[in-house]
Amino acid sequence: MLVTRQPVLRRFWYAVMPMHRLDAGPQPFRLLGEDIVLWKTADGTPAAVRDRCCHRTAKLSKGFVEGGHIVCGYHGWTYDCSGACVKIPQAADQPVPPGAKVPAYHCQERFGYAWVALDEPLRDLPLPEEESLGWRRVHQFDETWRTGALRLMENSFDSAHFAFVHKGTFGQADQHKPQHFSITETDYGFEARMVITINNPPESHRITGSTEPTTERRFSNQWHLPFLRRLGLVYPSGVQHVIYTCATPIDDERIQLIQWLYRNDTEADCPADLINDWDTRVVMEDKEILETVNADAPVDVGRRDEQSMASDRPGLIMRKRLLALLQAHGEAEAHGWPRNAQPREEVAAC
Ligand code: FES
Ligand code: CO
């Protein structure tokens, strides 16, 4: 599925950057192939418009913020959060022509991040109950990966890679199957529950609250259409650790990985740097392999050039639900599969 060519994907909220980055002035971002610019308005809320001035097409992200409006750095045309040009310095005594505007997008701050929906959102953002419970929030990642959003999502639910990709951290090289695995489909996507025994090396002892060489983990892993997951787990210490991962689609080749977590303990119990150092090691193991896969993951399972196994079920459900989403909005899957990709029947006949 080429995400930039599926208009319905424009109707979801995506985390695009931590809010504090906007303190430095307008910031560019490419979302689903569209170049946008974000800035902080006078009341501190974020705004997003197309990163292209309607005068002579300069990038507004090269401009600056003045009085809560964004000002083009070329000739100073000034835009409000609705994308309307509110000032043309060279003709300040005349009304601004009605056509002087740029497309504006839905934009809001949540959980310390600026979120954008390019078109009318189909659903609200999930509200983490951990916010209302007052758990501490730890920012983890904000970085660009050369992979597809669906690839990252299905990886986040793929227990079969732990023994291979993560054998240097928490994975047990000889344990290839989760002990228990169940999936319940929901309106937002699905919840996968699994129980798995994983390694607990000394670097993770303060995170898990256990000095045992292995610990049993009970995961509740939710997938929210299209590219957000919530991973909740309870450590042997009783501490709860809840990770939110956003695979924000930049274009058909890249994502912005944005991740934060909640814990119901304190910084003194387990410093955020220690958690992030450990998770960086884990996540870099995923990155190394995910940047080798074909970024374009097919959602139409009747036309895929990939074989599957039982543990791929979460990813297959994602594909089924994404295909249903496209079809419900009158879209066919756009794809850029390799030239040798054949309908499955034809492959079977070879
Ligand atoms: Fe933006 Fe001229 S190009 S003001
Ligand atoms: Co992994």
UniProtKB/TrEMBL annotation:
<protein>
    <submittedName>
        <fullName>Aromatic ring-hydroxylating dioxygenase subunit alpha</fullName>
    </submittedName>
</protein>
<keyword id="KW-0411">Iron-sulfur</keyword>
<dbReference type="GO" id="GO:0051213">
    <property type="term" value="F:dioxygenase activity"/>
</dbReference>
<dbReference type="GO" id="GO:0046872">
    <property type="term" value="F:metal ion binding"/>
</dbReference>
<dbReference type="InterPro" id="IPR044043">
    <property type="entry name" value="VanA_C_cat"/>
</dbReference>
<dbReference type="Pfam" id="PF00355">
    <property type="entry name" value="Rieske"/>
</dbReference>
<dbReference type="InterPro" id="IPR050584">
    <property type="entry name" value="Cholesterol_7-desaturase"/>
</dbReference>
<keyword id="KW-0223">Dioxygenase</keyword>
<dbReference type="GO" id="GO:0051537">
    <property type="term" value="F:2 iron, 2 sulfur cluster binding"/>
</dbReference>
<keyword id="KW-0001">2Fe-2S</keyword>
<dbReference type="Pfam" id="PF19112">
    <property type="entry name" value="VanA_C"/>
</dbReference>
<keyword id="KW-0560">Oxidoreductase</keyword>
<dbReference type="InterPro" id="IPR017941">
    <property type="entry name" value="Rieske_2Fe-2S"/>
</dbReference>
<keyword id="KW-0408">Iron</keyword>
<keyword id="KW-0479">Metal-binding</keyword>
<dbReference type="InterPro" id="IPR036922">
    <property type="entry name" value="Rieske_2Fe-2S_sf"/>
</dbReference>
<feature type="domain" description="Rieske">
    <location>
        <begin position="13"/>
        <end position="116"/>
    </location>
</feature>
